[in-house]
Write a structure and sequence with these properties.
Helices cover 27% and strands 23% of the residues. The protein has a ten-stranded mixed β-sheet with strand order 9-7-5-2-10-1-11-15-19-20, with helices on both faces. Strands 14, 16, 17 and 18 form a four-stranded mixed β-sheet that branches. α3 crosses α4. The longest helix has 17 residues. The radius of gyration is 21 Å and the shape is globular. The mean pLDDT is 94. The structure holds inosinic acid. Inosinic acid (IMP) binds next to α4.
Length: 406
Amino acid sequence: MVVVSVVLGVQWGDEGKGKIIDVLSPQFDWIIRYSGGANAGHTIVVGDAKFIFHLIPSGILHKNTKVLLGPGMVIDPEQLLKELRQLEENNIDWHNRLFVSDRAHLVFPSYKKEDEKLEKKRKKSLGTTKRGIGIAYSRKMLRTGIRIADVDEKDLLSLQNKKDLRFLQEHVDFLKSISINHYSVLHGIEGKQSILFEGAQGVLLDSDYGCYPYVTSGPTSINGVDAIGFPSRDIDSILGVTKMYCTRVGVGPFPTEFAEQESDLLEFIQKKGNEKGSTTGRLRRCGHLDLVSLKYACKISGVTSLVLTHVDVLDTLEKIQICVGYERDNEFLEFPPSQFRQLNEVKPVLKSFDGWMSDCSGITNWNEIPTRLRELMDFIESYVQVPISIISVGAKRKQTVFKNAN
Ligand code: IMP
């Protein structure tokens, strides 16, 4: 029997999935990441140590958990080596616990340059991470990309440039040493398994369901799980991770972004929430929690329960505003339009709540949640129609509160 859960972001990425996956990992034999590449960034705090991962699932920090970089991912071997070094420097043995699907595609140095060039060429840039992600996914679709399984395929290699081929030669032995055909892991050939599928970025950056073209290139919704080759009907639970407010990096529509007159609030949240991209170092754009897009993201990906993160960041706010609808041309919209210009034009309908005005960062039990926060959570649950099962009140592992703690 295989027990499978999914953790995915239900905003524009950076929701705190890395910490949640780290906390849940001891319950799972395997963590399998299903999309994206080194564009993602997870910061994990363990005691005094801080780890930043772009490719490796944070489950690697638990010695009994194995991790797989899945077939839907695009892998930059140089970045992967850097992250393995980070583990070794902290005496974490990853051998026989970290694998890459041989169906995953590779990211070559020329892809990063091409990504950068394309950004310069656009009239209005997308604000990509310049990690070559869009190029790798487009090469995959053009069938000119290289998967780890095909590193010796001469016909395919003849389509690459010389520099990239040299790069491949430098990394080929390393890649072969960690690659596997992941079918046996998934379909129980090795016995009973519990597996967690890890999403990357957030549903609102999905190339089909996000606001195209201001999206990433990989699938970030539940559709990404298809790449793994596991039937979605057999998934037991899907956890959607959301912050108590919204952030976005890069360019693109952001209906609840703080207005100019809210610059104090922006500065406060950027500082207290440490809202700086761990991949690019860019300060994140911030805004009010947007229930319209949250409900949309949850519906699309079949989220069965919500994880609320960064709750403590709002501890001292007297009033908390939350978006409960969009207005455009005197029309009330209950879900985001497909066209980015239209989404740019929507005005958020904001509802004001009294803040709980107390320090949440030490809460360890669901019963200790302050009444006003509880009321706000009730409102979110009834709007989105998904129960909240976990709240995160700080970066540390112990600052995680479960509704049904054992
Ligand atoms: P790309 O994925 O580098 O092509 O960038 C496309 C868009 O997705 C840009 O707006 C990026 O800022 C955004 N993006 C990519 N990865 C992440 C992430 O992990 N968190 C938040 N935004 C991301």
